[in-house]
Write a structure and sequence with these properties.
two-stranded antiparallel ribbon; mainly alpha; 15 helices; two-stranded antiparallel sheet; ABC transporter involved in vitamin B12 uptake, BtuC; about 350 residues; single chain
């Protein structure tokens, strides 16, 4: 038993054990306060799976050596463009969802190539440049959204050009499409089977890619560039490949996220999403140089689980202060992000 605990401590890490303990404490408090625990767990499962692909998008960028991809908003923007094209063609249900992914891929590949080229030019300062590139792209896309020539009345402004800030997916039959696919109930607990399976499928595909010849070369380039160069691996090329894969996953991730949320959110919507994704994978045990599928799953479970359960628990103690609901959400979310970002400074465990 002692050896098991030592191995658990060594492999899982003290910070993850503390965060896990805090999550379990919140769950116990939720039960003691007689909150609807089944509903909280159902919401947690949905938020874990709907955010999972976006967190997964950070993995290739870390593995290839460009660090946590704070510029994943580039992929998110590509996904939104693909989604709007599918809306413009008035596609419905699964056709809309999968065609949105297909339409976004050419944009994601081209943008990923450009992003990877820039990352090769700023070696050593990738995270700083990635953050500013992402924020600049979100700001520039606001101009595009205002001038976009889409005519579908579901997303275009009634007067003038451009698209609305929020575009509903309900009329296209895309809202909660994966959530409701093969979903079932265990008592009051709802299992969003389709959403979870899609996230796990993406994890499996990335896992297989990482074990392919290209994936192994990319890992080698990210882990030890000098050794990789000596072995005949083009390090810059592998960094570009990692950036492309990360951008593609970001595009898929926002489409999965949007269908679960029920709408596309443009303009400021993608601005802080990279922070949440990076924070989740760092909480899961990743460092700025090494990450795995396990880090993605653990991180998104802890981050979103705490966020979902902590809010209702905290609100019980502040029920006489109506304005505290949003304040508590911001404090909890940004507190988790702050902790995760400190791991970059300290180098992780």
């Amino acid at each position: 038993m002692g050896n098991f605990l030592k191995n658990l401590y060594r492999n899982f890490g003290l910070p993850r054990l503390i965060i896990l303990g805090f999550f379990l404490l919140l769950c116990v408090m939720a039960v003691m306060l007689e909150l609807n625990f089944s509903e909280l767990m159902s919401s947690s499962l949905v938020r874990i799976a709907m955010n999972g692909v976006l967190v997964l998008a950070i993995l290739p960028s870390i593995s290839c050596g460009t660090g946590p991809n704070f510029g994943v908003s580039l992929g998110i923007l590509c996904g939104l463009v693909g989604g709007l094209i599918a809306m413009e063609l008035q596609l419905n249900t699964y056709t809309n969802f999968f065609m949105a992914i297909i339409f976004s891929m050419p944009f994601a590949v081209l943008v990923g190539l450009g992003y990877g080229f820039v990352m090769n030019k700023v070696k050593g300062s990738e995270m700083m440049f990635a953050m500013f590139i992402g924020w600049s792209a979100v700001s520039l896309m606001k101009i595009f959204w205002l001038l976009a020539p889409f005519k579908n009345p579901e997303m275009a402004w009634p007067i003038g050009r451009g698209v609305r800030v929020t575009i509903s997916l309900v009329n296209r039959g895309v809202a909660q499409l994966l959530n409701n696919t093969w979903s079932f109930k265990v008592g009051d607990l709802t299992i969003p089977t389709g959403l979870i399976l899609f996230f796990l499928l993406c994890c499996l595909l990335v896992w297989l890619f990482m074990r392919s010849k290209t994936g192994v070369a990319m890992l080698a380039a990210g882990d030890n560039p000098r050794f990789a160069t000596a072995a005949g691996i083009n390090v810059d090329r592998q960094r570009i490949i990692g950036s492309v894969v990360s951008t593609m996953l970001g595009a898929i991730g926002i489409i999965v996220y949007a269908q679960s949320f029920g709408f596309y959110q443009l303009y400021e919507g993608p601005h802080f999403m990279p922070m949440i994704a990076v924070a989740a994978i760092l909480i899961g045990g990743a460092s700025i140089k090494k990450a795995s599928i396990a880090n993605v799953i653990i991180g998104v479970v802890l981050f979103q689980g705490i966020l979902v359960v902590a809010m209702p628990v905290f609100n019980v103690f502040t029920q006489d202060m109506a304005s505290m609901a949003e304040i508590s959400r911001v404090v909890i979310q940004n507190g988790i992000i702050l902790y995760a970002l400190t791991q970059i400074v300290s180098g992780g465990d």
